[in-house]
Structures
1.
Amino acid sequence: MNGTVGGTVGGTVGGRVLREDAWGKVLGQAAFPADVRREGQIYAVAVRSPHAHARIRGLKLDEARKAEGVVAVLTSADVPHNGHGVLYRDQPVLVQDHVRMAGDPVVLVGAETLAEARTAAGLVEVDYEVLPGLFDPEEAMKEGVPALHPEIHGSTNIVYHLPVCKGNVAKGWAEAEVTVERDYQTQMLDHAFLQPEAVLAYVDERGHLVVEVATQYAHYDRGEIAHALGLKFNQVRVKTVSVGGAFGGREDISLQIMAALMAWRTLRPVKMENTREESFHSHSKRHPMRMHYKTGATRAGKLTVLEARIVGDAGAYASWSPNILRKAAIHATGPYEIPNVRVDAYAVLTNNPYTGAMRGFGAAQPVLAYESQMDLLARELGLSPMELRLRNICRVGSETATGQVLTGSVGMEECLKAVKSYLGEVSAR
Amino acid sequence: MKIELTVNGVARILEVEPEERLLDVLRERLHLTGTKEGCGEGECGACTVIMDGKTVNSCMVLAAQADGHAVTTIEGLGNRGSLHPVQKAFLEEGAVQCGFCTPGMVLSAKALLDRSPHPGKEQIAVAMSGNLCRCTGYDKILRAVERAAGEVKE
Amino acid sequence: MYYVRPETVAEVLEAGEKPGMLYLAGGTDLILKLRRQEVQARGLVDLQAVAELRRIRVEGDRLEIGAMVSFADLLNNDQVATEARALWLACRSMGAPQIRNQATLGGNLANCSPAADSLPALLVLQAQVRLLSHSGETLVPLAELLERTPLWPSGTLLAGFRLPLTGGASGFAKLGRRQALAIARLSAAVALREENGRASGVRLAFGAAGKRAFLSADLAEKLNGLVLDGGFTEVACREARKVISRALGERASAPYKREAVAGVVREALASVEFMKSGEGA
Ligand SMILES: Cc1cc2nc3c(=O)[nH]c(=O)nc-3n(C[C@H](O)[C@H](O)[C@H](O)COP(=O)(O)OP(=O)(O)OC[C@H]3O[C@@H](n4cnc5c(N)ncnc54)[C@H](O)[C@@H]3O)c2cc1C
Ligand code: FES
Ligand code: FES
């Protein structure tokens, strides 16, 4: 080791520690999945749907199968159990007949070189019957609208609804002297982690399927791979190599099962590497949320009531949507104590890219709504935004909208006071 | 076609396809996988290498264009026994998180310091502006370059 | 596909005039297009070894810039920084260091994207373009060239740019989504002189407002002769909005750019050396 580079500086607690993995990273030695290789590896490429909603009428695979270097062309018929998902197995490994979002994988082509695999993938013909898409979650949740997953999620596109009720809303409105009612909307976001997904899958000397991947969730990946391929857990080993950023975007399955399937079927090591464009198609996004907020307060600046309706666009597959909309509902009141609350949070399936975990996990979006409401209320009341907050923030002993009494570690007041001097002009506005 | 180039000080004669990128040749033919592909479109800088003293995105250079030139990749900088000052500064400042941007960042910083050993903050920011990082928020990376600048001897 | 790297202009033309051959400069546009199969080539003629295409030099009262001069070369050139300020500023805002090290001025014109950063600057600097083919050399004003589609017959080599050294001042500003690696949403270049407190020789050009960069004759006419005081910038901004409105018509971006142009023009004017002191902006 280099003697001039220090280890821990300061004590064990509060000291500065050099990251162990940083050595390999500054030297360019850290192995990300695209960097690992095995003798005799082939390359697999997924053919993805350009349509957001379609029925597959047929596949023409002959040209691709005959193409130079092609080792195997696989379809849904080759997948023993064609589904995966963190909460519901509603996402196909390869689509059989119902495409639910642009980027859904339909056919998997394996060939000796990446270029051959891409060329052969270009020869696959998929006959799509394009269907009208559901792109607006408010529309998709209406009664009578065709359900996107009747087998798994029933006759509705609402995969989750959480009502949060506290106190008596009618009483809260009776007490309210000032009301602010607004609609807010956040956008879909991609994590854009810097390392596009890549996988190396192979069958080892013990006959076990090994999948080397950058993942946030190795044990889950193992379960889903085993399930999809009809293997036992102990036949599958997932090795997490260096992860080039994730931010929630590597919690779902992306290429893992496809690469594993190709390796299992061909008994060749299989490499899959997404281009940036494919990467955008193959992982979850942040939930766009529409938030209708109505907040009431007394002239004295005490919040009396909040009603909110939050609709999260789950996209084509459930992923973590229920958990995320739960979190949105729980955080809908923000760090404020409000005696009377009614929040309804929904996750709704559409034909948009599917949405899942991303930094904040549903707690980030409502901030826009509840903090904007506070600013607008402050204006109505002629109070500074800071003052209105100080009159309503949670303190030790406060009760949240879900009935939790906070017993410690509530730093909001301290925090506000600490930043106050920096906000002088803003709060005087 | 045949190309001759110097990679990390070693002369290489390679048989390549005219459409092959320098990035592919480094990664696939020479197994120098420290050079990363983040976008393949010149946007992210993860594939940055130094060619004749200047940084380029190796996803935007054909191997054929590099014929006759000298290329430095991250593997050509230091090792565990003797880190390059920039590598050392990245370690010490905690400028590394997932590490995928790191090789490109380190090379952009090296090229800057080779050219101007005592850059100002603004100059550093410009020199690093072609390298995206999704993890760190850049602050520690910029500080690492400043730290390295302090340690680089003329 | 095959690849050649000739060393003289004559050899370049001989290789480049064969069917299916494309010139390769830095490759920052072409390599992506080839990979995306947006263009096909039988072969590439790499221009990097032709020394005379890489030169920047003053010849008498003009500045000659070879087509293979990179954005980084331009940025490091004192003559360009002082005599062709608008171009220098455009180079500074272009791409990122890695791209500037590789991308060439010739490639920027030849590719001719609506947002090509150098073109508004070259327009206000009254650039003439040197074109070479087997039938000889021609010199075409850039403004005139930009009205032709295609810009030139295939096989033609763009050899370089000729900028008259007028001693006038110039500036450039670009609106992008961020500071580096941003394709222009809108850009503006301006050149002008001060004569007895009034503006003369005013030229204003816009990029990313329509299919190609263009000079606005209307705007020049409105601004020439105006007193260079605080009001000058206001008139320029107001008139620029009209020009952009007309250029963009019903395009989706029109409402945004109509508003944004005032800011871009204001910034372009403020980047002109003698306007900085505050009289103008
Ligand atoms: C990440 C990124 C960021 C970018 N940012 C910007 C930006 O901010 N502003 C901007 O304007 N552009 C930008 N570009 C686009 C590009 O870099 C420029 O247009 C550049 O000037 C192209 O030059 P080149 O030398 O790379 O051309 P090449 O890609 O080599 O060639 C482009 C085209 O011109 C032809 N050609 C080149 N030279 C000649 C010649 N001498 N005679 C005849 N034909 C010729 C080629 O055949 C080809 O068709 C960016 C590109 C990337 C990848
Ligand atoms: S991979 Fe080359 S710039 Fe992103
Ligand atoms: S450390 Fe992850 S992208 Fe920079």
2.
Amino acid sequence: MECQELHIPDNPQYRELKRIIEEYRNVPGPLIQVLNRAQRIFGYLPREVQLYVSRELNVPLSEVYGVVTFYNFFKTEPVGKHIVNVCLGTACHVKGAQRVVDALANELKVEIGQTSQDGFYTLSTARCFGACGLAPAMMIDDEVYGRLTPGKAVEVIKEFQKNETNQN
Amino acid sequence: MKKRLDVLICGGGACLSSHSQDVKNKFIEVLKAKGLTDEINLVETGCMGPCEMGPVMVVYPDGSFYVQLTENDVEPIVEEHFLKGRPYQKKLWAAPEARKIVEEKRQVPFFEKQQKVVLALCGKIDPESVDEYIANRGYEALGKVVTEMTPEAVIEEMLKSGQRGRGGAGFPTGLKWKFGKASEGKQKYIVCNADEGDPGAFMDRAVLEGDPHSVIEGMAIAAYSIGADKGFVYCRAEYPLAIKRLEAALKQARAMGLLGKNIFESGFSFDIEVRMGAGAFVCGEETALMASIEGKRGQPRPKPPFPAQKGLWGHPTVINNVETLAAIRHIILNGADWYASIGTEKSKGTKVFALSGKVVNTGLVEVPMGITLRELLYDIGGGIPNGKKFKAVQTGGPSGGCIPAAHMDTPLDYESLTKLGAIMGSGGVIVLDEDTCMVNVAKFFLEFSVEESCGQCAPCRIGLKQMHDLLEKICEGKGKMEDLDLLESLAHTIKATSLCGLGQTAPNPVLSTMKYFRDEYEAHIKEQRCPAGVCKDLISYVVDESKCIGCTACARTCPVSAISGAPKQKHRIDPSICTRCGSCIVKCPVKAIYIGPGAVKREVESKKLHLEKTL
Ligand SMILES: Cc1cc2nc3c(=O)[nH]c(=O)nc-3n(C[C@H](O)[C@H](O)[C@H](O)COP(=O)(O)O)c2cc1C
Ligand code: FES
């Protein structure tokens, strides 16, 4: 890629990222930790953020990109307001997790990895949250919902969205 | 001051998600309102084990075990039990007959066969309080080691204990430390592997959430033995609570001088940093894990050199699993002989298993090595729910295999499991019943390994994909008998030629299911039939019109509107729309919906019919 001048907007998000990078400056091997924090700030890792991290940490962009694409946790596309993460781990699988995902995909009219039309949910899948005792399980953001059926899962996401809309 | 009652409410991940927090808050509120806070000690603990029954709570000294609590139970429990001394029967753990209510934790069969060492304090102490840990002999082992023992003596003790690593491979801990100590280098590291990537395993999570100091203490002892002054805990991002509790514990340990410079005035210095993973299964492999700590792509490299020779940033590094490390202090405190007296000849000590899948009591159990699968499953696990038939257990996750009913009396130790083609792995035990299709399970694991392959070596990257595609073909009813031979030969080649443990073990689930459940493979291939009724292309849902009462329950629940029929009329399922989600079967009040042959079989049959007609 040609060497381009990066225009970084001076906004609170980038200022926060800058602060974090300073915090990690003397830590060995900081890249993954910084990207983790950056994703928490921006919700995902757009190209500009990767460029910024690359420049600030003095790590080639190719390496940053390599790391971002290697790990499932890093997202390069914007995500919805909330992430519905359905576990497809073994315990959940044998208790019918695939049916739960299918029902949710059908309800939200998305495929796995996509965001619903209204931008409210991104449907995603994961491999085990260690809640196998409650299989099949899913998470909405950091909250685990267990012992699901396809019908119950759909109810949960409807209820969740309703509650949040009512609050606002 | 010793309080009158200790009330331990489980704050493990599973109980949290069945809202133990709300129950706890309600207790705080009610105890305060009744002025009981001075008499009753309310503690939130780590996972107690029986997750299926959550939220759970134990009251000492009488040992009443409450299950499935809700906020509404709080008032009556406080009123009846805490004030009047009569345990609240409604939510006590009940035996099958309602009257035989088990009142004491010791008598719950789930606990009878267990021997808690690593999990001893999980669920008993407040994981955020270092004082409670210390009150239970916490950091005593570290103190003893750094002030009274030489590193050589510690390693000798570990060798004598016979402890083997709990991360999967079962390598003797003492030997690993010995190598670490022997390696030349001023800078050395100790790493705790808390990646716990095997789906179905959650013991490391429970230890970190329930007793984080035991891991810190184990790491410090390991560090002293090999001469390291810095440690890392590599924890997966999916465990935010574990990370939070660990960070809190580290802070407390530093504040008390149990980490940092000159620990116990012994001249030994050591500190720990937590590194968070980013969702890559292969990072559980030790060389990939180190690459990831260094901030790189988590790609494994060939061994040797072993990490103990050349590890993090090229320095000697000893990597141990969470459960391995959490047991160290017990070995030091109680002696190697005590530890070696538990278990079998070659597998010493206790092992934590995570029971999940089709079993009544899901959750964590800790048992002496060598207990039989039958004891684990029936005496502790309570058997298979809903009157279904047991089919197999799967152990060792994507690297492991399955054990069928015929081998129920196998002792659970490293050698016996390996001999059956199912490895100990990290200790996840997933129970499968008659409704599980073994071909589907094999395909499921390969899908996992294909996705998680780092892509460096061809056998793993390409070979596993080929195996997966063959399995997919079989599940769609398009397989041929030759495919089974091809699967087998691919499996052996991939095992022999892959770069790291992922590829070397990924074919195991296929080999193992082919060995014990070949008939199921053949049914898919020869008869286009899935005996368990799972593979979507080989089944259809059919309404038995002689039973259907036209209640419309199925049509209303169907997510894709595949069911037609007016009220009081016979209903029909359109197989071309139906996604086989199974919702209708569950809803039907008269069990009129059954699983019939799938489209592939119907097509084959109609062709046959057509052929016969034309002849
Ligand atoms: C693909 C793969 C994944 C692994 N995942 C884990 C894991 O999640 N946790 C773990 O402790 N060990 C895991 N291991 C084993 C580690 O490489 C290593 O052997 C272990 O951490 C050593 O600790 P121990 O001696 O205490 O068992 C994995 C190995 C492979 C090949
Ligand atoms: S397999 Fe789903 S939470 Fe473990």
